[in-house]
Amino acid sequence: MRTTTVLADGFHFLEGPRWRDGKLWMSDIGAGVVFRLSPDGTRERLVEVAGSPSGLGFLPDGTPIVVSVHGRVMHRIVGNRLEPHADLRDLVSAPINDMVVDRTGRAYVGCMGYNLFEGEAHKPGCLLMVEPDGRARVVAQDLEFPNGSVITAAGRLVVGESFGNRLTSFAIGADGSLSDRRMDIDLGGVPDGICLDTEGGIWVAMLEQGVARVKDGKIVERIDTGSHRAIACQLGGPDMRTLFILSFKGTTEEIGKIPGSRVETVHVDVPGAGSP
Q1: Residues 117, 255: contact at Cβ < 8 Å?
Q2: 3-class SS of residue 21
Q3: What is the pTM of this model?
Q4: Torsion 124-25-105-69 (CA) sign
Q5: What is the pLDDT of residues 94-109, one digit of tens each?
Q6: What CATH number is given to the structural domain containing 107?
Q7: Domain-embedded: residue 274
Q8: Residues 167, 171, 174, 178, Cα dihedral to 10°
Q9: How many angstroms separate the CA atoms of 224 and 3, rounded?
Q10: Is 53:32 a contact under the CB 8 Å cutoff?
């Protein structure tokens, strides 16, 4: 069985990892900071985000974008400052979270449906699609806490429904709309962040169950993260075979309140398909 190595620790609660230009970008929800991490573990504070940062992505020209969880807005990161990209407050009233950006610059963002952090009653979530010019609309509804997402080579968007214990996929239309909803796999556990490899395999961070690789509708490999819950994952490194795992040691109530998050790495066989 593969074992992980701790690359960096002392973060509050890490989410949204993306590999770009030889470094790992990630959001520390608790600290309210977007970080960039070098392969040797050196960290760089890029920008502070009011309302907590989470999902990260890049527009076709390379401009990074980030969502504000509680602010329900999307920003462009320009140097060490933020510029407005999309205001989603009129579309959803609950926190937003993870995000995936396609090659045209359309960003698909998950809305939780309710405020988990404040103990609100459960409600279904949705997916929003933000055009490169900032226009946005709801493209999928009735999702059980949509979380990590990827876009496959076949042109399907795959999203982890955390409280549905499944990966669900949609066909992406020419206008960015979603259709042909399917359940790809019942994981028997909670999916959080996910990433894609070149064989179409999907690595899934599954909290207490560590990280699992899904291929052809079944789990084909697992990696244990011990006492730390696996929150998100991303393939990167010089050969794209380093699996970066963002993990957290603490309870749900302690998310963002204690420095319980770290970055672990492990070398895998199949390289990543890019970010996502």
Answers
A1: yes
A2: coil
A3: 0.96
A4: positive
A5: 999 999 999 999 999 9
A6: 2.120.10.30
A7: no
A8: -60
A9: 7
A10: yes
